[in-house]
Amino acid sequence: FRPEYKTLDMLRSYTGQEVPIVACTATAATSIFSTIWTSLGFGNRPFWGLDVGCGRPNLLFLTRTVTNPKNPVLDLLNLLPEILNNDTPLASIDKILIYFDSEQNCLDGVDTLREALPEHLRNCVYNFSGTMSEDAKETCWKGFMDGTYRIICCTEAAGMGCNVPDVKITVIVGSPKCPRSLSIVAQRWGRTARGRETIGTCIFLVPKWAF
């Protein structure tokens, strides 16, 4: 997904074969592994590959049918604190990532969530998409990291740059369209509870036909 990655083999022109290179990735199908092998010029020296698996015992995985297809965020309002009033503290809202299939659906999700929150908490919901400026992206992740923002409605652009260790919940809204592959689902869910002391929940909202 990054065109520059295909030109990494140029590094070998500067380093030669004697300098070891380590390639790490959380999700790599066989085809991706072949691309990495070619791009980094592996194979001319001894090679070691280590597959540590994808076991995440601190994660709970749930798949649910969307009951409000016109506005799936309505299915997620139960993730908010049970009591919402002018005294509800910001920290009572779990850190949540919600993945949508389009920027417009992100914005609609932000609007729905803000309407459900007391006025003093509405700014804790933020959106993230690829069309944002680099400064805006940095502001988003910084606010999410320090807890100023609690809920991020995002597109797949949030796959890069998100390294927040205490995300409690990650939701993939698979309506109207589901992700193109299982590896995309795994990558998005992988943003949950990256700090191993955190217990996280991964939710996949799918249309009825998926069952």
3D architecture notes:
The chain is α/β, with parallel strands linked by helices and 211 residues long. The protein has 2 domains: 1-53, no CATH class; 59-210, P-loop containing nucleotide triphosphate hydrolases (Rossmann fold, 3-Layer(aba) Sandwich), CATH 3.40.50. It is 24% helix and 15% strand. It has a 6-stranded parallel beta sheet, sandwiched between helices. β3, α4 (134-146) and β4 form a beta-alpha-beta unit. The longest helix is centred in the middle third of the chain and has 14 residues, at 103-116. The protein is elongated, with a radius of gyration of 20 Å. The two termini are 30 Å apart. The relative contact order is 0.18.
Largest sheet: 6 strands, parallel
Mean pLDDT: 89
Q: What's the CATH architecture name of the largest domain? A: 3-Layer(aba) Sandwich
Whole-Å distance between the termini?
30 Å
Low-confidence stretches: none
Indicate the CATH class of the largest domain.
Alpha Beta
Category by helix and strand content = alpha/beta
Keywords: DNA-binding, Hydrolase, Isomerase, Nucleus
Pfam families: Helicase_C
Catalytic activity: Couples ATP hydrolysis with the unwinding of duplex DNA by translocating in the 3'-5' direction
InterPro entries: Helicase_C-like, P-loop_NTPase
